[in-house]
UniProtKB/TrEMBL annotation:
Belongs to the binding-protein-dependent transport system permease family. This is Peptide ABC transporter permease. It comes from the Bacteria. CDD domains: TM_PBP2. One of its GO terms (cellular component) is plasma membrane. Coiled coil: none annotated. It comes from Tianweitania populi.
Amino acid sequence: MSVVSDTQPAPRRRRARSLVKSLLGFLVVVIVTYLGLLAVTFFIGRVIPIDPVLAVVGDRAPANVVERTRQELGFNEPLTTQFVIYVQKALSGDFGRSVLTTNPVMTDIKRVFPATIELATLGTLIGAILGIPLGVLAAVRRGGWLDQIVRIIGLIGYSVPIFWLGLLALLIFYARLQWVGGPGRIDVVYEYTFTPITGFYLLDSIIQRDWSAFGNIISHLALPSLLLGYFSLAYISRMTRSFMLNELSQEYIVAARAKGLSERRIIWRHALRNAAVPLVTVIALSYAGLLEGSVLTETVFAWPGLGLYITNSLQNADMNAVLGGTIVIGSVFIAINLLSDLLYRLLDPRTRAR
């Protein structure tokens, strides 16, 4: 027994080593991915035909001012040195100043990003709450009329441009029927009575018990969140259907039916439970996609989020703001992707055993 214990590590020790190895691998992936994101944004900022120094001082600035500013910003240094400086500043949250607002870029991002998070979160919730049941029912009734409807919904969601649907929705539900609020997050009359606290207007209105403002915020959120929710629904329902079809063909489903379990229990408690593991990744990626891909929606609905901020900055050649916003969105996408991978490992015992 002593020889076996000396030559073979204890199970607890093996698990500890495996955990340390996984954490180190996870850390390496995070570092490499983030450095890749910084490298891409750095070289994009250098190859575009816009001089960042002239964007700061203006086209009519004297030559000595331009040269002094270039030296202060480090643009006279070798490219490798510039990249090191760029990484150091980015890691500390320093993306420079916005030419458009004259504020530090990070200050602007903290102001506008809650609007994007609020919109994307609501859109993802709508997509998950409606998309998962529709995907399950479509798989159970494969080839039936419900399955065909779900597939058509998914096809339209992937095919129709989101800005076209947004304009059409504004024309019908806001301009014609006046069922919802128009562009923006809140009516102008509330801007003097409603005080943002966290930047998440729904939460702020609840904290202040301002139910009139809460209703107005909901009316403005309705169209853009439903629009993003529809595109999220199309993706989630399609993937749910695929996962459920795979689970319903497994042997344990046949065994459960042979034991006399009810069809409802087999579908919702066994098949869906196993399909929920990869669905976590799908929902997380859908959420990240809405965070980074809501630019057109925010532009159509004049939603003052990060997407509209980046769009306006790009139109005004404000590259500090564009690159800063791109880094923040990329960082969030990386974080959500890695978090979904961790959740997948926690929920699936087979990955933990590897």
